[in-house]
Amino acid sequence: MSLDKLSSEAIEQDLSGLPGWTLREDGAAISRSFRFRNFSQAFGFMAECALVAERMNHHPEWFNVYSRVDVTLNTHDAGGVTEKDVKLARAMNRAASRGD
Ligand SMILES: C[C@H](O)[C@H](O)[C@H]1CNC2=NC(N)=NC(=O)C2=N1
User: Pfam families attached here (predicted)?
Assistant: First the structure.
């Protein structure tokens, strides 16, 4: 997978298929805030995503308080958003919808 930074146009294109995700105003990351029914659901989501991230060797920056998980994704090695961020965001949306 290419580790090249995506153009903002390419990111916007990818975001159109990623409900809830937005491009940070500096254009260097994508983020989404997830809401769950309770802490157990939120933590279960994080546990599932942690295993995906480890398999991808691509890790989120995230914050959790109770039923909320705020996620920011970018590729440190590229200094911006790459296909790896889009792939992990897609996996996170799938994990979050599994709990619905
Ligand atoms: C050494 C290790 O493979 C690298 O630091 C990996 C780990 N996880 C990573 N996660 C993210 N989000 N960006 C990276 O560039 C990255 N690089």
Answer: Pterin_4a
Q: Is the CB of 59 under 6 A from ligand 1?
A: yes
Task: Evaluate: CB of 55 within 6 angstroms of ligand 1.
Answer: no
User: Does the beta carbon of 75 lie inside 6 Å of ligand 1?
Assistant: yes
Q: What is the pLDDT of residues 55-77, one digit of tens each?
A: 999 999 999 999 999 999 999 99
Is residue 13 predicted with pLDDT exceeding 70? yes
Q: How distant is the alpha carbon of residue 68 from its chain centre?
A: 14
The tens digit of pLDDT for each residue in 21-53 reads 999 999 999 999 999 999 999 999 999 999 999
Interval between CA 78 and ligand 1 midpoint (Å): 10
Beta carbon of 87 within 6 Å of any ligand 1 atom: no
**Token representation of residue 14:** 């990818």
For CA atoms 91, 51, 78, 76, give the dihedral sign: positive
